[in-house]
Amino acid sequence: MVYIALLRGINVGGNNKIDMKLLKQTFERVGMNDVVTYINTGNIIFSSESLSKDELSMILEEAIHNDFGLQIKVMVRSVDDVREIMNAIPDTWKNDKEMSSDVMFLWDEVDNESVLENIVMKPNIDTVKYTPGAILWSVDKKNITKSGKSKIIGTKLYKQMTVRNVNTARKIYELMQAQNS
Predict the structure, then answer these.
(1) Which of 28, 33, 61, 156 has the fewest CB within 10 Å, making it most exposed?
(2) Is residue 174 part of a domain?
(3) Rg of the chain in Å (alpha carbons)
(4) Tens digits of per-residue pLDDT, 154-164?
(5) Average pLDDT over residues 60-80
(6) How far, CA to CA in Å, does 110 sit from each of 52, 58, 120, 121, 162?
(7) Is the pLDDT of residue 179 over 80?
């Protein structure tokens, strides 16, 4: 089975620095196969057989702690999980100079449509939707300062998600599909 490990909070603002080549070696050392990293923010595609996503998360968190001395949360999602999220993203959404669109991958503890009750959305500015596994959020860049998106930073919910822009999320899925074929 092909998986993505989404690491929360590495190589952001000079904190929790991890070299992707060394991280790839860590994954391989603990038995992950076909390991590919994508950009520097902790996106690792790999394959593994017979372990659950929870078991994989625990193994990878422990390996990162042992090899780098960091307590990093690792979210593991299968290619099928990511396919469902990708199918929910409107084709028109992008991350460019005109639009800011994000996939807020949710940890299992908060993965429920009721999470939308805990965020500030601005009508006619923010487009927000829940899909199993993620909150999808888009706003025109001209309205970014009026958006409720920045208000989620620092909240309890924010600590239970890891965010990727839609361009990154689509590329991750493309790499997963290539490995899955």
Answers:
(1) 156
(2) no
(3) 16
(4) 889 989 999 99
(5) 95
(6) 19, 18, 16, 18, 12
(7) yes
Residues 86 and 161 reside in one and the same domain: yes
Give the residue among 48, 40, 54, 33 at the shortest CA–CA distance from 7: 40
- From the number of C-beta atoms within 10 Å of its C-beta (0-12, 13-18, 19+), residue 137 rates as buried
Report the amino acid identity of residue 136.
L
**pLDDT confidence tier of residue 14, bands split at 50, 70 and 90:** low
Provide the residue range defining the domain that includes 70.
2-79
Verdict on whether the full-model pTM lies above 0.70: yes
CA 100 to chain centre: 16
15: left (phi over 0), alpha (psi -120 to 50) or beta: beta
Amino acid 13: pLDDT:
65
Give the residue from 79, 105, 140 where a domain finishes: 79
Residues with Cβ within 8 Å of residue 53, at least 6 apart in sequence:
3, 76, 77, 78
